[in-house]
Amino acid sequence: MSSYWPWWAGAIGLALVTINHSLITDRSLGVSAAWDRVLHWRRERQLERMDEEFTDDQALAEALAAATAEHFGTGTGASTVPQVPYGKSQPLEADAEPAAGERPAATSLRPAPLVTQAALLMSIFLGGFVAAATSGRFHLRYDMGPGFRNLVTPDPTTMIAVLFVGGVLVGFGTRLAGGCSSGHGLSGCGRLRPVSIVATAVFFGTAVAVSFLLWKVI
């Protein structure tokens, strides 16, 4: 382990990457979400073109109201005020539209541009390649190394099946938790979001329990 960075240097590097990504893109850093969007780039590019037509929430609300009026034949002069259930009072007009500073901008709620997330993934790949090549530890292999063979299975077919199932579970867990360890652990916890703090605690707590089970029990 002496050839690796010390823990404090890695922590500083991750912090700088996260801060720079947030300042440049005004979005949270997330690797799994970026990978999913890049794989479905045609769908994501279509969504981006649709988003470009409506740069704010007000324009989107007006377009939806006009489309609804046209579809249901209520005419363009129909009221766009939402209907209030019977027995409830109509809210004041001043309370219907919150101030601009009380809600986040529409652009900050949208994911980072597709090209930005593709550049993030390419940077991770190139950075790992450069680090391995300059340290003299780069070589191609078709298994997970002797540690995986000794701990899990030496059979190549079983190894591929286990890795495939593990990858599916990671993807499912990422969708279920609304983010991966980088999104919650780095960006979310850095912004003190309660959901990210809880998710990160579950991530690492489960990892510690599984590691203890594998190394001490099995």
TrEMBL record:
Its main location: membrane. The keyword Nucleus does not apply. Keywords: Cell inner membrane, Cell membrane, Membrane, Transmembrane, Transmembrane helix, Transport. It is a multi-pass membrane protein. It comes from the Bacteria. Residues 74-105 are annotated as: Disordered. Pfam families: Sulf_transp. The chain crosses the membrane at residues 6-24, 118-138, 158-177, 197-215. The keyword Repeat does not apply. It is found in: Cell inner membrane. Belongs to the TsuA/YedE (TC 9.B.102) family. This is YeeE/YedE thiosulfate transporter family protein. It comes from Streptomyces sirii.
